[in-house]
Design brief:
By secondary structure, this protein is an alpha/beta fold. It is built from 15 helices and 26 strands.
């Protein structure tokens, strides 16, 4: 239970903490009975969620876990997951989502790298993971934690540059990379997004993304900053065709990858009666194509549509472009805009060492408040990607070098391609080398290459081209990959070929691969 006088729930010490979690607790003090979280028809008010969060925080402090530790969350979307996030942040620690849908081998790679002090899991849902890389002492069944009150938690001081969470993304060596995001990075984004959407306490936000995907930062912390409600999307059907979910839950702000809008268009899920409560539909994570946007705006002109851009290293989204009119389907992908509040982008012409002008191409660089701390325990990769701003001689000015190639348009850069072997597929960032690494472990595969292939009027395909020593079962191959990779990294097609096309220096000619599939 919580204090009857909710305004006194938070001591002066707690209110002085400036962190990603602080707006939630301030809102809980002012509006304890408003709905903070609604899951499958069960509403949790701010006071209930705060009490559960204090339970997690109290437990962490009772274990004498020092501030700055990394806490793993192997939990499905629900009260415990969101309370664990808040409780972890409240005690000055970093949370690391461990998606229950990930295969054990993938989770072990993350757990081994992250050096976790504790892993929360939900035994009631049979989610207790068997991680050989850890010992049983680091596990805690969240079902055993009691609710708590604010005075059960000792106030801690949160530094702006302290790490709030680490998200592990695909790595080219077969090992995931952990992106460290500070409280100030995340707070800068949340403050901008709140103002951008004119979020208010009457809004209902969707929670489409899993918590290991950084779009979840928007879903989670923007509504809680203003006293609004979060409606996590749980069912797979609702994730692919969310029209019914939006209608039933009267969602006002929707945020997802563009693939979802394409899926809605293909499945005739863009219907005015389903979408009439929406104020905003925001998209991020991959190129936003004009055709599904045209389908949306043609039947639901009241919805404001925005295309956002940003890698995990720049905290969710660092630029935005609101689509003000129905786009021309022949224009290619929609522009990504220029900046958020204290963060911006520019396109750099490396050959001429200058900022690219209108109509010119180059690599996207990001600078400002949302550029994250770097990669966990990976100084070499951090130095390679977090670089001095090439526009100035002052080494104190730092940028994130994205590896994304774009052409400068009037409404901002337009994404063209990756400069390396990293891609965005269905909203997820994937190192194709990571997938190839898993494929190469199959005993019958002699050589392999993975390519993302775009097809007119069809979803992008992730195609694995393989040269084999003996005939293999595609079904068995996919089954083996699922033991090593999350579902979003599993190729949609496998093609066996006798010989790979080669460049003059003997490397696989990846530019020719799409022609072998189409």
């Amino acid at each position: 239970m919580v204090h009857s006088n909710s305004e006194k729930m938070f001591t002066e010490g707690h209110l002085k903490n400036i962190g990603l979690h602080q707006p939630f607790f301030a809102t809980a003090a002012l509006h304890p009975n408003r709905t903070a979280l609604s899951i499958n028809g069960r509403d949790y008010c701010y006071a209930e969620l705060a009490s559960a969060a204090f339970g997690f925080a109290s437990f962490l402090q009772s274990r004498n876990i020092e501030q700055g530790a990394r806490i793993g969350l192997h939990l499905e979307k629900g009260l415990y997951l969101y309370a664990a996030i808040l409780g972890t942040l409240l005690t000055g620690n970093s949370y690391i989502p461990l998606a229950p849908s990930y295969p054990t081998e993938r989770l072990n790679l993350i757990v081994e790298q992250a050096q976790l002090s504790l892993i929360f899991f939900d035994a009631e849902e049979s989610l207790a993971p068997a991680f050989p890389a850890t010992t049983s002492e680091v596990f805690c069944d969240v079902g055993t934690l009691p609710l708590a009150e604010e005075h059960d938690v000792s106030p801690v001081c949160i530094d702006h540059d302290q790490c709030a969470y680490i998200l592990f993304t695909s790595g080219s060596t077969g090992k995931p990379k952990g992106v460290m995001v500070s409280h100030s990075n995340a707070t800068a984004f949340v403050n901008w997004a709140t103002a951008y959407c004119n979020a208010n306490m009457n809004d209902r936000f969707s929670g489409h993304s899993d918590l290991n995907f950084d779009l979840s930062i928007f879903d989670t912390f923007v509504p809680w900053k203003v006293g609004a409600a979060l409606y996590p999307v749980i069912e797979m059907m609702d994730k692919a065709t969310p029209g019914r979910f939006i209608q039933v839950n009267k969602i006002t702000v929707w945020f997802s990858v563009p693939s979802i809008l394409s899926s809605m268009s293909a499945m005739s899920d863009i219907q005015p009666e389903k979408l009439h409560t929406l104020r905003w539909m925001l998209f991020c994570g991959e190129p936003l194509l004009p055709r599904p946007v045209q389908a949306l705006m043609s039947v639901a002109s009241h919805i404001r549509v925005a295309n956002l851009y940003g890698p995990t290293e720049a905290t969710v989204a660092c630029s935005s472009h609101e689509v003000s009119k129905i786009p021309d389907v022949s224009q290619g992908s929609i522009a990504i805009g220029w900046q958020t509040a204290g963060t911006g982008i520019f396109v750099w012409n490396e050959i001429e060492r200058r900022v690219a002008g209108l109509g010119e191409s180059g690599e996207i660089y990001i600078y400002g408040d949302q550029v994250s701390l770097g990669y966990w325990n990976n100084e070499a990769e951090t130095r390679a990607r977090y670089v001095p701003d090439p526009r100035t001689d002052n080494p104190a000015y730092r940028c994130y070098k994205t590896g994304d190639c774009a052409i400068v348009g009037k409404q901002g850069p337009i994404f063209k391609s990756r400069l390396d072997n990293q891609v965005k597929f269905r909203g997820w960032r994937v190192e194709l080398g990571d997938v190839e690494h898993a494929l190469a472990r199959h005993v019958s595969i002699v050589e392999c290459a993975v390519s993302i292939i775009q097809r007119e009027g069809k979803p992008d395909a992730m195609v694995a081209f393989v040269r084999v020593s003996e005939k293999i079962s595609i079904k068995v191959l996919i089954h083996s990959l699922k033991k090593m990779l999350p579902n979003y990294m599993i190729p949609t097609h496998v093609r066996t070929i006798e010989n790979f096309p080669r460049t003059v220096n003997g490397k696989i000619d990846r530019k020719i691969l799409p022609s072998l599939f189409l």
